[in-house]
Specification:
The protein is of the alpha+beta class. 31% of the residues lie in helices and 20% in strands.
Length: 192
Amino acid sequence: MKGLCSSGSQMTDFRNVTPSLIFFILLFSLFGCSGSSSGLNSGDSVTNDPTFSATPDAKMLLVNLPERREVVFFEKGSYELSIDNQRVLDPIAIRLRQHPDSQLIVIGHSDDNGSDEYNLTLSFERAFSVAIYISSVFGIEEERIQLVALGNDEPLSMGNSEQAKQQNRRVEVISPKAIVRTLSTITGDERY
């Protein structure tokens, strides 16, 4: 009598299998999978260990963020965000992504060229362009970004020179000091 096993079109002859190999296969199938290499006895489980916690310590997930401020400047009559301004804003946007409870205040300013209404609108458009950049490029929810348009009410520099006016055509971006949850496992990184 032949011991054959059919697998598709290929036939295997088991007559050449040695008795010691058969014994090893049987031994392994009976005891090899039931043994425990983890050091746990039968009936033990990780959840019975009093030192094990399925949830990490809440203190480990909280971080104290210092206030972070950046200022970006604009050309006369423009609210277009330059590449250099985007590079200035990127670390704050990364900080917002890493800390989902953090907020952002974006304050738009203008110089005193034009009417008060024009300057207020221009300062809003500047703040809005910063908020849209951070929201669209980094996926930050709009609800976390507060816009403030001040027009020419809070000049940084007084005077009629072009240099003084340039200092007033700005947007201040403030990520306030807060204790927030973090998604970052790196501690002590002051860049964010």
